[in-house]
Design brief:
26% strand, 98 residues, two-stranded parallel ribbon, alpha+beta, 6 strands, two-stranded antiparallel ribbon
Length: 98
């Protein structure tokens, strides 16, 4: 699990510590991901920031997008519930021989 951030690496390291995040933040200061994937973002104080969203990525493909995330408090459970009802399939299961 990773969190994209349009802020610089020094800010990200401080935020991970301050917020006690259980995952690293990935720097995207351009923000290239927002442009290429059409991710929601907003500008404030000369910064382009990502809006809160969750991408479920499996096998290098975006499988599901949670957006908007409001209220944020129950969101982690919503993601866990979705993952529970959409388990990962193994390659042998996809081919039909498992």
């Amino acid at each position: 699990m990773y969190g994209p951030s349009s802020q610089d690496v020094d800010y990200q390291q401080e935020a991970v510590t301050r917020l006690r995040l259980p995952f690293p933040l990935v720097s995207d200061t351009t923000p290239l991901l927002a442009r290429l994937l059409g991710l929601p973002s907003f500008a404030i104080g000369g910064l382009r920031l990502y809006r809160r969203l969750t991408l479920v990525i499996r096998g290098g493909r975006i499988e599901h997008v949670f957006y908007p995330i409001f209220p944020p408090d129950p969101h982690a459970q919503q993601v866990l519930d979705w993952l529970h009802t959409h388990p990962t399939t193994t390659p042998s299961t996809r081919r039909g021989d498992g």
